[in-house]
Amino acid sequence: MRTRITAGVAALTIVGLVLVSLALYVVESRRIDRTVERSLLQELEEFGGFAQRAPAASITGPDAVVLAFLERNAPDARESLWAFPGAGTPQFTGDADLELQGSDTFEDAVEDLRGTGGARTIDVAGTEYRLVVQPVTDGTVTAAFVVVQDVSAARAELRSLLTTYAIVALVVLVAVTAVAASLAGRLLRPLTDLRETAQSITGSSVAAQDLRTRLEVVGHDDVAELQRTFNAMLDRVEEAFAAQRRLLDDAAHELRTPLTVIRGHLDVLDPDDLDDVAATRALVTDEVDRMSRLVGDLLMLARSVRPDFVRRSPIDVAALTAGVLDRARGLGNRDWRLDGTADVTVELDAQRLTQALLQLADNAVRHTGVDDVVAIGSAVTGDRLELWVRDTGTGIDPAVADTLFERFARAEDDDAGFGLGLSIVHAIAVAHGGTVRVDRVDVGARLTLVLPLTVQSRPLGVLAE
């Protein structure tokens, strides 16, 4: 990228310098041509005026007029004035030009224009000349006044100017290219750091130290914003990587116990004892069922991050609340109550919310007795929908409230399950753009699903009151 940017800047600079040189050449060439023409016309005007005044000064005859004018006038630079008498050798004033003096091309051009006059461009030994001929006649003798401009000499200055320009342009091109390379390197350095950081964490083995690597963000431009986004992505990757390791460690730990139990009983199994075989079979079946439930819960949590985990449709919250209560009555003999319902229709996934509320109700049943109250309710609070399950049981230890929704987290007096139920409840709430809140109550416990009435792009997190 640095090479491409540098090459692009160099190419644009070259194009710009070439266009400037072409414009300079065209403009200066036209200026030189105009200057040459003006100089020729000026000499002709001066000669015309002199020819009219010549008789008053007793200068008569074409030859005398032309020669007298040459004696009284000095030509400009790169210019020569010639007198071609009717008879005799041509004479001139100005810088000597041996090539022009002995040129048949020059004399032929003058002879062609002696009678009519006019201007012509000739080439003599590689040198371009521009000449104009003004005939002077008295009817019997025709002389010619000739003004010659060395156009090649005038253009030599332009070539010298262009040579100087080319040298300066080359220096400018080198300087611009060097500066462009340096600036491109500095501007692209953050992208190089990003690439190197990405390469360091995409190898065959990713260490925790690699995931803790972050880019140093400097500035407030688009590249800096890309660095911030990349760092945020690394934060999420590190968090997901850590969560994956914890999940694998916890899953291995939870699976190791039933596998050890199964292996131990199979090792001491007496195949000839039918009662022992039956008991071992029942135990193995029970442990396999526990492992199946564990795998199912883990798959549920893994699917919770997929976009299609929640399938929304308009749901009558009041009917949903009452339906969950009817289903929950089969979980145990408790004093089941309906705290109230929210008379509102919201786009939710009824099956997932029913699953979450029944999980909370099952937890309540496991921490309550026969005479305890387990209540389910729903209400609208501001722009949020709340669905809760409360009980009058043993309550929740504040020490574990912050970790209650983590995977494999269990209270000290809870020996049933794997500690994944509340994690699934939290995942369902987050998938709806909400959270699960542990409310502070005087008796028992109350867990509330807090969901937005409109779809939100980010979860609210875990709240505690």
Brief characterization of the structure:
It holds the Pfam family HATPase_c. The protein has 465 residues and is an alpha+beta fold.
Describe the structure.
Helix content is 54%, strand content 18%. By secondary structure, it is an alpha+beta fold. The chain has 3 domains: 2-158, Beta-Lactamase, CATH 3.30.450; 222-303, Signal transduction histidine kinase, dimerisation/phosphotransfer (DHp) domain (Helix Hairpins); 308-464, Heat Shock Protein 90. The strands form 3 sheets. The protein has a 6-stranded mixed sheet with strand order 7-9-10-12-11-13. The chain has a 5-stranded antiparallel sheet with strand order 2-1-5-4-3, with helices on both faces. It has a two-stranded antiparallel sheet with strand order 6-8. Strand 3 (118-124) and strand 4 form a beta hairpin. Helix 7 (222-267) packs antiparallel against helix 8 (274-303), helix 9 packs parallel to helix 10 and helix 10 (350-366) packs antiparallel against helix 12. The longest helix has 52 residues, at 2-53.
